[in-house]
Amino acid sequence: MTILDCNVSNCMYNADKKCSKNNILVEGREASMPHETCCSSFREQSSGSARNAVSQPKTTLDVQCKAMNCTFNGEGICHADHIGINGVNACVVAETECASFRCKQQH
Ligand code: SF4
Known about the structure:
By secondary structure, this protein is an all-beta fold. It has one domain. The chain is about 0% helix and about 30% strand. It contains no helices and ten strands. A six-stranded mixed beta sheet has the order 5-4-6-1-9-10, with no helix packed on it. A two-stranded antiparallel sheet has the order 2-3. It is globular, with a radius of gyration of 13 Å. Iron/sulfur cluster binds near residues 8 and 14.
């Protein structure tokens, strides 16, 4: 389980800068930089719709990850203790990123 902070305030799952899902999926199979990753679990908060009132922010959650070049990736699971998802003004998945991505081969 990974501690996750998320500043994607426009995501329907965001609650107090935490995620309310039990697990997320980070994409970026070819990524070598954080901006080449994304949180594919992002769903835009549609205007006028209320957030799910029963959603509780999760302090830790399972992070499945396709960014195989990341040093924290172990067979598709994130093994970092603490990660951050960025994308303050994101409207689509591609505008989010895992800010904690670290390339195994530093450039
Ligand atoms: S962007 Fe991803 S990590 Fe952040 S709240 Fe949405 S689903 Fe959760």
